[in-house]
UniProtKB/TrEMBL annotation:
<dbReference type="InterPro" id="IPR017797">
    <property type="entry name" value="Phosphnate-bd"/>
</dbReference>
<dbReference type="InterPro" id="IPR005770">
    <property type="entry name" value="PhnD"/>
</dbReference>
<feature type="signal peptide">
    <location>
        <begin position="1"/>
        <end position="20"/>
    </location>
</feature>
<keyword id="KW-0732">Signal</keyword>
<dbReference type="GO" id="GO:0015716">
    <property type="term" value="P:organic phosphonate transport"/>
</dbReference>
<dbReference type="Pfam" id="PF12974">
    <property type="entry name" value="Phosphonate-bd"/>
</dbReference>
<comment type="similarity">
    <text>Belongs to the phosphate/phosphite/phosphonate binding protein family.</text>
</comment>
<dbReference type="GO" id="GO:0055085">
    <property type="term" value="P:transmembrane transport"/>
</dbReference>
<protein>
    <submittedName>
        <fullName>Phosphonate ABC transporter substrate-binding protein</fullName>
    </submittedName>
</protein>
<dbReference type="GO" id="GO:0043190">
    <property type="term" value="C:ATP-binding cassette (ABC) transporter complex"/>
</dbReference>
Length: 300
């Protein structure tokens, strides 16, 4: 009886291992931070070289209208790879710390691996600094955005001297960073929180981040905005790989992306939305402060 059970267990283990190794499709989640067409256009260059590097027959892209769609896909195993903000990784970790590994993050030209929340208002609004936003309407980018919600939620009450909901007349969500900035320009919000490297010139949208992406796409003239507040530095978000993939496939995926800046910088630049020079190693410890912040503010 024991021998039969052992043989059955071995057979099941061998069958599971064979199944686990048989990965024919890799699925990349796109988080809805900008419009779907632009995200797909920027990302499609990785498909063919990733197939060649990993041996899969197909690479699929799954755009989501919001961050949570990709978070749930990574938790449920329907998405294998995604590059997102630190708060999104924290959301996954707090629900299942073994669901994904943060394997890489982006690096700026000066070697730094961080960015900032940038709070902006219309240049003609009369708003010039944080105190002048009192009684106004504040827009956040997305509930799962690090720079667009989590960090402002943690840092602003100290800066303002009172809770956010007491300082502002109303708060809301813009539906992603691009839409949030457009909402500020259209008068939906008086001020809004998006992100940028904080390096280079504000007049150019900084060297990287949503403002720079919108400038490069011709969606934004920085003369129409004024910066109201900049947060402390935030760790750049990780490229995450699902632990439902077998170990050898995870290694191939990680090696591919780590080598991408050197192999095809134009593709790396497009995939990461521009302004970065390299991928560098990342791990869970880099994001512990964000995990703790999310646990205290959101709970999960």
């Amino acid at each position: 009886m024991i021998r039969t059970l052992l043989l059955a267990s071995v057979a099941l283990s061998m069958s599971s291992a064979a199944f686990a190794q048989d990965v024919s499709v890799l699925r990349i989640g796109l988080d809805g931070g900008e419009n779907e067409a632009d995200q797909l256009r920027r990302s499609e260059c990785v498909a063919e070289p990733l197939k060649a590097a990993t041996g899969v027959s197909e690479v699929q892209f799954f755009p989501s209208p919001d961050y949570n769609g990709v978070i749930q896909g990574l938790l449920g195993g329907t998405i294998d790879i995604a590059i997102m903000g630190a708060s999104s990784y924290a959301a996954i970790y707090l629900q299942d710390e073994n669901a994904v590994d943060p394997v890489l993050t982006t690096q700026q030209e000066d070697g730094s691996t961080g960015y900032h929340t940038i709070m902006v208002a219309r240049a003609d609004s009369g708003i010039t600094d944080l105190p002048s936003t009192e009684g106004k309407t504040l827009g956040f980018a997305d509930p799962d955005s690090t720079s667009g919600y989590l960090i402002p939620s943690v840092a602003l009450p100290t800066e303002l001297g009172k809770p956010i909901d007491e300082f502002y007349a109303e708060t809301g969500f813009g539906g992603g960073h691009e839409n949030l900035v457009l909402g500020v320009l259209d008068g939906q919000f008086d001020v809004g929180t998006t992100f940028g490297s904080g390096q280079g010139e504000f007049s150019e949208g900084y060297t990287s981040g949503n403002l720079r992406i919108m400038v490069d796409k011709g969606l934004l003239d920085m003369d129409d905005l004024v910066e109201v507040w900049q947060s402390p530095i935030i760790p750049n978000g990780p490229l995450m790989v699902s632990n439902k993939l077998p170990a050898d496939m995870k290694e191939k995926v990680t090696a591919f992306f780590k080598g991408l800046p050197e192999a095809d910088f134009e593709c790396f630049d497009a995939f990461t939305a521009g302004g970065y020079t390299n991928f560098v190693d990342a791990d869970q410890t880099m994001y512990q402060t964000i995990i703790d912040a999310r646990r205290s503010v959101i709970g999960s």
